[in-house]
Predict the structure.
Amino acid sequence: MAPSPAARRVVPFAVFVALTSLQGSMGLGEGSRYWIYLLKTLVGAWMVWALWKQLPECRWSFSWEAVAVGVIIFGLWVGLEGHYPSLTDLFARLGLGKGDSAEHLPQPWNPHAYFGSGSGLAWAMIGLRIVGSTLVVPPIEEVFYRSFLYRYLADPKWETVPLNRWSPVAFLITSVAFGMVHKEWLPGILCGAAYQGLVLRKNRLGDAMTAHAITNLLLGIWVAWKAAWNFW
């Protein structure tokens, strides 16, 4: 039986998130953050390919607006670093938990530290992450957030909602939800708002996918060039 329209847009994202949660888990060991990333990239690519014909909105589009948004969001992502509190510290300031401490901070995703500085396997993993975040992540996330979640929040009969329908509540919730799944929550919220704005302006998903890909590509190059592993 063919998956429902909602399942086609939600399941790939859910599988991707589930595999992400296993990366570096205590039971699987430190190396799992790299091997599971390889697995989820392959699984994610297969899901995008398998559902391609069933997701008509999942088509890449190129425009100057997409390029501009992709570059600007990359600039914000890097430029805002250190100028806003982490989510843990933010909740602590609100009396909802304890702040960050060095012993509780997660280890950065640094293949050079695990496989050996300058090793071929380390560079292969860096390349894998850049390719995965550039080509696999954008369609999976944009289809979930922009095609399904935004439209569902605008109207439970979401399939009848055009991509360019304006809903302030859906816009706010979707942007915040997108930001909160990233440790860089503030640029993440701005990022979600910018990508959603592209969809509303263009009435298609492809420009947001392209902007998302450009942001992730530039960020990946920046991480590898500057050894800014904290972004991964």
Notes: The mean pLDDT is 93. The radius of gyration is 18 Å.
